[in-house]
């Protein structure tokens, strides 16, 4: 009896996720799987397991919610970049390989169905939504800067052609990667991802196994 009461007190003392956090955590998957346009507030709150009224208590609009979800998704992407692109124990070209391989593992686990939330949201973004457009610009700029930093390191190591501008290469990488994931979603096949990596590591990136 004493042990049971102790466990109960312990559980009650543990911090519990707020309803807002539950909506955000579930919302990343909801928008990824259903899409921005198709996911209504009812679907979002049902997936989060919270009352529908909680949504309007925490978010002014669906667009404001989408901005928050993009931030959370970007945080997750940055964590992957910390383990790969920014891992200075690896050669720069290997950092690029590690990043694309880790994302590929996730894409495979999702059955090649969902691609990148940033790319998906860019296609679905309402024409009139300036706040969402500006936020997507900021996220894409941040991703490009992360790639550019690794490209510069690779150029200094003689692993990427020095006759190319690092920012141009980074922009190309992000655009091509997003395109490969879009085609992957259509085909439900890893082939576009494999083609992207083969061409990248056989042309722009040198001294790295093209596989």
From TrEMBL:
Keywords linked to the UniProt accession: DNA-binding, Transcription, Transcription regulation
Residue intervals of the HTH tetR-type domain: 17-77
Pfam families reported in the protein's UniProt record: TetR_C_13 (PF16925), TetR_N (PF00440)
Key word Transcription regulation present: yes
Record feature DNA-binding region, as residue ranges: 40-59
UniProt superkingdom: Bacteria
MF terms in GO: DNA binding
UniProt xrefs under PANTHER family: HTH-TYPE TRANSCRIPTIONAL REPRESSOR NEMR (PTHR47506:SF6), TRANSCRIPTIONAL REGULATORY PROTEIN (PTHR47506)
Name of the protein described by the UniProt record: TetR/AcrR family transcriptional repressor of nem operon
Organism, scientific name: Rhizobium leguminosarum
């Amino acid at each position: 009896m004493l042990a049971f009461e102790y466990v109960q007190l312990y559980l009650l003392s543990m911090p519990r996720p707020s309803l807002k956090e539950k909506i955000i955590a579930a919302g990343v998957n909801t928008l990824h799987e259903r899409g921005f346009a198709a996911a209504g507030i009812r679907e979002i709150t049902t997936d989060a397991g919270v009352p529908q009224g909680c949504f309007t208590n925490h978010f002014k609009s669906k667009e404001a919610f989408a901005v928050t979800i993009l931030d959370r998704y970007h945080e997750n992407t940055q964590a992957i970049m910390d383990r790969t692109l920014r891992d200075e124990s690896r050669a720069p070209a290997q950092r690029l390989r590690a990043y694309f391989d880790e994302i590929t593992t996730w894409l495979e686990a999702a059955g090649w169905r969902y691609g990148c939330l940033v790319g998906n949201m860019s296609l679905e973004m309402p024409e009139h939504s300036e706040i969402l457009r500006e936020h997507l610009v900021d996220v894409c700029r941040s991703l490009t800067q992360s790639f550019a930093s690794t490209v510069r390191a690779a150029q200094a190591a003689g692993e990427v052609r020095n006759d190319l501008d690092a920012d141009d290469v980074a922009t190309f990488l992000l655009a091509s990667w997003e395109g490969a994931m879009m085609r992957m979603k259509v085909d439900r096949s890893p082939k576009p991802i494999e083609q992207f990596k083969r061409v990248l590591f056989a042309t722009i990136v040198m001294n790295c196994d093209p596989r």
